[in-house]
Amino acid sequence: MNKRLLLVLIGFGLLFTSCVPTKDLIYLQKKQSADAGTEVNQMASKPYRVQTSDILSISIKANDPKLVEIFSPKNQIIENNKSEISLYFDGFTVDDHGQIRMPILEEVNVIDKTLEEIRLHIEDRLLKEYFNKEANIFVTVKLAGFRYTINGEVGVPGSKIMFVEKLNIMEAIANAGDITMTGDRHNVTVIRQTPSGYEMHDIDLTDANAIKSPYYYIRPNDYIYVKPLKQKSWGTGKTGIESLSTILSVLTLITTTLILLRSN
Length: 264
What we know:
Elements: H1 2-18, E1 55-61, H2 65-68, H3 84-90, E2 92-93, E3 99-102, E4 106-109, H4 115-129, E5 138-143, E6 146-152, E7 158-162, E8 167-168, H5 169-175, E9 183-194, E10 197-203, E11 217-218, E12 222-228, H6 230-234, H7 240-263
Parallel strand pairs: 6-12
Antiparallel strand pairs: 1-2, 1-5, 3-4, 6-7, 8-11, 9-10, 9-12
Helix pairs in contact: 1-7
């Protein structure tokens, strides 16, 4: 009888420690340091500065459309119909020296510059070297898709491209099918490319203060990794029902083994 009671107690202990608690599944909770009425202010995101391997989409318009054709790739199509593949081939890739090659303008240094700074630089060169103010030059510079990679405990891991100006980590995770129940929302790792190398930072997405982090807004080419919880390696189940089923199976096995041993 004592053995059975002990097995039952062990079973309930495993049940409560093996399933994933609700507090580990909820995003952006207001922790003890902030009361329910406290507003959490988001950190202002700084303009992105272009890095190597980025692909830029640059369009030049003027009063005379034929005049600006020489500054655009031959295969460039109407911007509204651009696909991901066409942006890759018709966009301007930043090489290892921080340069892009444009028709007529040739090398243009863009490394560590914002999109606005690049736009002004190209517009200034066009006005100084090829056009006058009456031409009404209009230059647009954008990233040819916001690229990032996400791996680990998410619904759809892999490299992603979103056509947006900026992206936060919550949106990036949602675009990857959300973090699975066995994913660790307390320690989501962001690996970021910088001019001096790579930075690695963990962000707790269960804490509302995560929106204050400089890593809350991700940057192009960021790598996001969601670690598994211990419950996944234990294999006892994600919910109470799954854990109970596993524990009952284990207890049945132990009981059957004891009965067979006694019968012998």
